UniProtKB/TrEMBL annotation:
Major facilitator superfamily (MFS) profile domain segment(s): 1-410
Record field: transmembrane: 23-40, 60-80, 87-108, 175-198, 236-256, 268-288, 295-312, 318-338, 359-379, 385-406
Annotated localization: Cell membrane
Lineage: Bacteria, Bacillati, Bacillota, Bacilli, Bacillales
Matches recorded under Gene3D superfamilies: MFS general substrate transporter like domains
Membrane topology label: Multi-pass membrane protein
Keyword line: Cell membrane, Membrane, Transmembrane, Transmembrane helix, Transport
Top-level taxon of the source organism: Bacteria
PANTHER family: INTEGRAL MEMBRANE EFFLUX PROTEIN-RELATED, STAPHYLOFERRIN A TRANSPORTER
Coiled coil: none
Protein name: MFS transporter
Chief localization: membrane
Origin species: Paenibacillus marchantiophytorum
Stored InterPro entries: MFS_dom, MFS_trans_sf, TM_effector
Length: 418
């Protein structure tokens, strides 16, 4: 068997979403663009902490970036279903590119101020409010239901590969040339994903208007649909807890690096890369097992392990211990997120899918302002160790309450058969 044939068989078996031409265009574009995104993420966090010296103000920036998702994602779910998703993504990715270039210019010309960063974070959040549910719902249009979980796992693999590479490059850039170059390269990276989107040819699903009900009635119908389905409801609640309390690394890791480890940009980039390595391994694991389909038990186990990892992180005081725990946290975070995302998309009816994913965006990313402000406040008062401990204990308690509440209503049949 030659290498080319062996490679083709490996891809078909473990990365079968890549057999779809449209998905390859999207995936390759994201491979480039997401590296730039992670360079901007660590550059912005370090820039804010350098300008202000305040963990709480860093938390405010993260809150501004995700506040629009919390406020408007439910409305976005209605919009996503009424327009071709490819066209929406072309607009949102172009806007994100412009915002990255704007921040780069402000930093490179020494004109940047904390207030400007807040405004740009808010604008990016507004843009992401529409971008996130669109990307989630677009996957099934270009790969179909059978390969959906594999596509989601591959997206996570790409995202976390970028989380490894992006912070490493970003840390070097900041140390040698300054944070402005992180933002500039992020802007350039959007060209790749825009090129991929232009070449995608997919028949769009656009929901036909079936009644004269207003937007609020459609939103209510979507929420009621989720609430009446035990699997959807339990998954959404667990995602809300993890999204609020277990994804505050952009706030906690730079504070931990500066105030606990007393290290600089290189250590910060290394710790972010450790998180990415664990997440990458988790995404690959989910990709390899994607044909088995999502299981609610996996989301339950992963959520509790994440809580334990956060608590242990709060007790650590060394670079090695923190790096290892962050890798483990990343592994189970991605297993949880991929499994939960797949469960929601595969279980939801087609006419409700965009609305379900808008709720997913709300509780996963839209809850970040609450989590960021909480983590920043606790880090200000009790240090980064205290913030890790607080997030971990709350995550564990709330997840156990949700699991206990739904124990008698657990869905026992496999999702693939639904």
């Amino acid at each position: 068997m030659n290498m080319k044939l062996a490679g083709s068989l490996f891809i078909e078996r473990h990365f079968h979403a890549l057999t779809h031409r449209n998905y390859r265009y999207l995936w390759l574009g994201q491979c480039v663009s997401l590296i730039g995104t992670w360079m901007q993420n660590i550059g912005q966090s370090w820039l804010v902490l350098t300008l202000t010296g305040s963990p709480f103000k860093l938390g405010v920036v993260a809150a501004c970036q995700f506040l629009p998702i919390m406020l408007f994602s439910l409305f976005a779910g209605i919009i996503v279903d009424k327009f071709p998703k490819k066209n929406i993504l072309l607009v949102t990715q172009t806007v994100a590119m412009i915002l990255a270039f704007t921040l780069a210019i402000l930093v490179l010309t020494d004109s940047v101020k904390y207030g400007y960063i807040l405004v740009l974070a808010l604008l990016l959040g507004l843009n992401n409010t529409l971008d996130m549910p669109t990307r989630q719902a677009f996957n099934i249009e270009i790969v179909g239901k059978e390969d959906l979980m594999n596509a989601i796992a591959l997206n996570s693999t790409t995202f976390n590969m970028a989380r490894i590479v992006g912070p490493s490059i970003g840390a070097v850039m900041m140390a040698l040339l300054g944070a402005g170059w992180c933002f500039l390269l992020n802007g350039v990276s959007f060209i790749a994903v825009l090129y991929g989107l232009f070449h995608i040819e997919a028949a769009p699903y656009v929901r036909k208007k079936t009644s004269n009900d207003g937007i609020m009635k459609e939103i209510k119908d979507g929420i009621v649909y989720i609430a009446r389905d035990p699997l959807l409801a339990q998954t959404v609640l667990l995602v809300a807890v993890i999204g609020t309390l277990a994804f505050n690394f952009n706030v906690l890791i730079p504070v931990f690096t500066k105030n606990v480890l007393h290290m600089g940009e290189t250590t910060y980039g290394t710790l972010m890369s450790c998180l990415g390595i664990g997440s990458f391994a988790g995404a690959l694991t989910m990709s390899f097992r994607s044909k088995q389909g999502p299981r609610i038990k996996l989301s339950i186990i992963a959520s509790l392990v994440v809580a334990v990892c956060l608590i242990l992180n709060g007790l650590s005081t060394s670079v090695w211990a923190c790096g290892a725990l962050l890798a483990l946290t990343g592994f189970f975070n991605i297993m949880f997120a991929t499994n939960s995302n797949s469960s929601l998309q595969m279980h939801a009816k087609e006419e409700y899918r965009a609305r379900v994913m808008s709720v997913y965006s709300l509780v996963f990313a839209g809850s970040t302002p609450i989590g960021s402000l909480f983590a920043g406040y606790v880090a200000d008062r009790f240090g980064a160790n205290g913030a890790f401990l607080g997030c971990g204990v709350l995550t564990g308690i709330l997840c156990l309450i949700i699991i206990w509440n739904y124990r008698k209503r657990a869905v026992k049949r496999p999702i693939e058969s639904i």
